[in-house]
Amino acid sequence: MKKIKTSLNLPQTKFSMQANLSVKETKILKKWKKNKLYDHINSRNKKNKCFFLYDGPPYANGDIHIGHAVNKILKDIILKSKRMSGFFAPYVPCWDCHGLPIEQKVEQIFKKKSIEENKKKFRIECHKYVLKQVYRQKKDFMRLGVLADWKNINLTMDYHNQANTIHVLSQIIKKGYIYRDLKPIYWCFQCQSSLAEAEIEYQTKNSCSIYVLFSIQDKTFLKNKFFTEKSKKKKKCTNISIIIFTTTPWTLPTCQAIAINPNLYYQLIKIKKKYYLCEEKSAIRLFKINNIQNWKIKGYIKGKNLKNLNCIHPFLNIVVPIILSSHVSNELGTGAVHMSPDHGYEDFVACKKYNIKPNQTVNARGLYNTPLFSILNNLHIFKAENIILKLLENKRKIFFSEIIEHSYPHCWRHKKPVIYRATPQWFIKISNLTLKNKILKKIKQVNWIPKWGKTKMKKMLKNRPDWCISRQRTWGIPIPLFIHKKTGQLHPDTIRIMKKIEKKIQLYGYIIWWQSTTQTWLKENADMYEKINDVLDVWFESGASHQLKIYKNNTYQASNHIADLYLEGSDQHRGWFMSSLITSVIVQNNAPYKTVLTHGFVINEYGQKMSKSLKNNQKPKDIIQKWGADILRLWTAYTNYTNDISISHKILQQISEHYRRIRNTIRFLFSNLFDFNSSIHIVNNKNLLLLDQWILKTTYSYQKKIIKNYSIYHFHDVVQKIINFCSVKLGSCYLELIKDRLYTTYSDSIARRSGQTAIFYILHYLIRWIAPILSFTAEEAWNYFKENTKISIFTETWFKKIQLPLKKIHHNTFFWKKIFTIRNEVNKFIEQEKATKYICNSLEIILILYVDKNLFKILLSFNTELKFIFLVSETQLCRYSHAPKIAYKSNSIKNLKITIKKSNKIKCPRCWHYSKKNRFIKNIMNPCYRCLENINKKENQHIFL
Q1: 878 labeled part of a ligand binding site
Q2: d(CA 246, CA 385)
Q3: What is the pTM of this model?
Q4: Which residues contact 443 (CB under 8 A, 6 or more apart)?
Q5: CB 875, CB 849: distance < 8 Å
Q6: What strands, in cross-sheet order, belong to the sheet with 53-54?
Q7: Is 911 annotated as a binding-site member?
Q8: Do 700 and 780 fall within a single domain?
Q9: What range does the domain containing 208 cover?
Q10: Alpha-carbon distance 478 to 485, whole Å?
Q11: Ligand-binding site membership of 612 (annotated)
Q12: pLDDT under 70 in the chain at which residues?
């Protein structure tokens, strides 16, 4: 039996079944670094057509989380697939280096007072912290297998970035879109700074909803409207109040007016001996929830006729006027709203028309400072609510109150409620209709993936207020402006001064600004101007970076600074995508990107979003240590990332099974090339067996679909195609059929070398297909080609098409589809018979097929090779009409019936087929005639299989 085994071409390879990824991947990373792989790829491709993916900068703060990993892996898959398609696709990773997350980490080291005293030292510590975080994150991203220019990373705190941000700011000022105003903006007490729209998230909050009574001061006006001169009731009508509704009782001390809608109708309503003014529809709703049944309507008045009517504040010794504003509705409340221009954007707009200005009653920490009601001074607004409510109760000024649950803005970092607070800030005039329409037009021209991204961007732009770009913080790029101390106007030479500052910052960084005085930059009238010490919103500086050529030594020349692709999480519609779009349209009259691709959030098995703040985040390094980076990469690609992406141990286990299928397919293919040298043993395409020609044609057909799916970023379809190819086309079809030929024909036969040639080509296809996703496994496999001299799979492009002979009937897709459909039907029947224990192995079978003339002609073309299609020892073709009643009838193929018989012939110990002729050869027991010829190195003629 040992002699029989040595006469077979049994598979052998050093490509292990055990992946051991966590160990192998680190060795491959060292090899990439040693060979300077990224530099090699770039220098090789830089004359090719460019594909520019701009990296959205993550915060240089803390360890990378699973969302970071998804983002970087997706970008890497895209760039590697583009390079495979022949593009020059450079990649410079970027980092956001400013902003509150970084500043607050460093604040933990400093006491808050010492920050004010030594801002220079604080900025130095922030700089050190950022570099440390970038080093940690960069190391983690490299471990994911991401190929990038890690030596020349782009940091927003680099001098050229700082100067570029100042340049973009000056261009926007030059075009007249920036202004300074005292108006309400989102304010976080934890951040102690203004927040942009992108830094707000909405959460459910319980609030006290109260209906407050403001007494009407001028009652004569209302009496004359609703009662006749002689009416006795007119004299008795001394207690008239207007009912206002609010969910923020803490804003009542800042109330300066009451707004009503000029087009709504308001009723004077009597309840017992008191009179109330309320909008007609709101009154019905209010009295119903308050269970008031006895009330009388004394008359109606249109809202516009109540203008300038004075009311008395419920607990402050002030009079507040009624003003008109169309934003007041009757859908909620009473149709009357108290106005606090300090703490409501719509309040601010409405009050501005009446020259009512914010009085800045609440400071940066949320503490009251009101001379009119000193009991509240130095109390936090949220803690003072109970005092205000108690005061209103004592004065009997609450008509009705309840607790409601509603959506309320929160700081996305601290998860704490924020307020609107009026402070002097710098804004970009998004409300300018010409600009807004121009941006909307550019949104329509961008390719948004998924499609709903376009609708989302348009809606967000239409609804957003002017963009507040200033922050009252220490760590950030300065707003290098000077305003007149009296008029508040910008210096008339602002653009020239900013150019001067920009050049200095390019050389020395923004430290030059913080160390300077007004006299440093203004030679004349310096004492008339005030130096601004605000810093820019981080969204502005990252959004302005599209104007910067981040690739050194002219390796990349962007036309109009437009990127082919931006790819970030879906939260960036309101963040980086929006800030980049706004600044780009203003500065260069174009969108900064051609395509925007978004991915969802990573969620756990319970559907909860994973985040550091919720402390449920799964660290990529833990997954890599257990499973390997390739499993994490395969999970990223396998999932439809445009939705939220679920991860759990169970899911990773399923992904590892898919990985094992792909790896074992590659291993099997390699194991049958152990004695194959492509420079010697390649079989000419026209001499390849027909089944080998079919699989190569099929493989190329798969490649076209795979490349197409890579190009449209459908990576889950790429993975599905690869798995299907390995499992069905190779595993269940091709490889099953050629095992006999590979193992039993003599080693140098055309039949065997034809199969090896096909396998050699398939490996070239397959390893390239998986390379963008399973980068480490592809590199490992690439190194197993004996004659391979290329340094990496990533220096290659997609495998070229194999030119096969002109089409014949035996080559066409229909022919082989028919054959495999018949084979599937036969296999179903054989499996049924195995279940009955009638047979144990298909090679015991004599297969009898009852067919019509058409099927007979197709199957007869295989001649003696037909049995290899069905993996049986013998086949017989008979007329369909001769089929016995017990024959198995195919449901999917017309005119096909099947029966089987158990062979009574002798099993060959070498090929396991049951054969008529058996002989005795010295040292080998009873090989069949076919095996005897193969042992003696005689060529058996094979056409198909």
Answers
A1: no
A2: 12
A3: 0.88
A4: 454, 457, 458, 461, 581, 591
A5: yes
A6: 53-54, 563-569, 593-599, 447-449
A7: yes
A8: yes
A9: 194-228+238-420
A10: 19
A11: yes
A12: 1-2, 111-117, 223, 225-238, 549-560, 610-616, 786-789, 806-811, 917-925
